[in-house]
Amino acid sequence: MLEKATLIREEYVLGECRTDIALIDKDDNVLAAIELVDTHKPEVSALQYYKENKIILIQINLTSEEDLIKVEEKAKNPDIVDLCLSPKCQNRDKYVIINRKITLQPHRCSRCFYPIEKYFIEIDSVFGKKMSYDFTDDEINLVKSISDKRGIRIEIGTNQSTNEKYPIFMCLNCQIMKSKYSRKWRL
Prior knowledge:
Number of domains: 2
Strand order of the largest sheet: 1-2-3-4-5
Shape: elongated
Mean pLDDT: 78
Number of helices: 4
Helix content: 10-25%
Radius of gyration: 21 Å
Strand content: 35-45%
């Protein structure tokens, strides 16, 4: 989100409400309202305003003096972020449009170093561009179709803990299935 935010304002007035911190883009649109909650949560009218105007709410609850001292650490893991990037989430497009694009990434087989291909999902949102290996059924069907036309064999794998589906690629040279994705990219 910081990629698109060009201005940060404290105690910013939005309609009839005032947010603790507003992240604003180059067109002077509020991308996100950051609420630091120490004594009372945001008013219902403020929450409604954020929702109607597609402003992402980021809420950081400060419940102790220690939280106030470590506010930077608390900010790295907010209590509420009213935006979801998962393609299966019903509320994903509630606030902002998230563009998903299938991207091809050339690799080499870790066993024989023969060129292989891996696909990932590039997600462009107010948070900037991110990589994901959480494919929708339509995205998997498209990857299978492209791979079949090019003579590349793939199968579909499922992460047992998250139920994420992703393509598994067969090295054409040594016939080993390559399914390892670096989970550090997981959203």
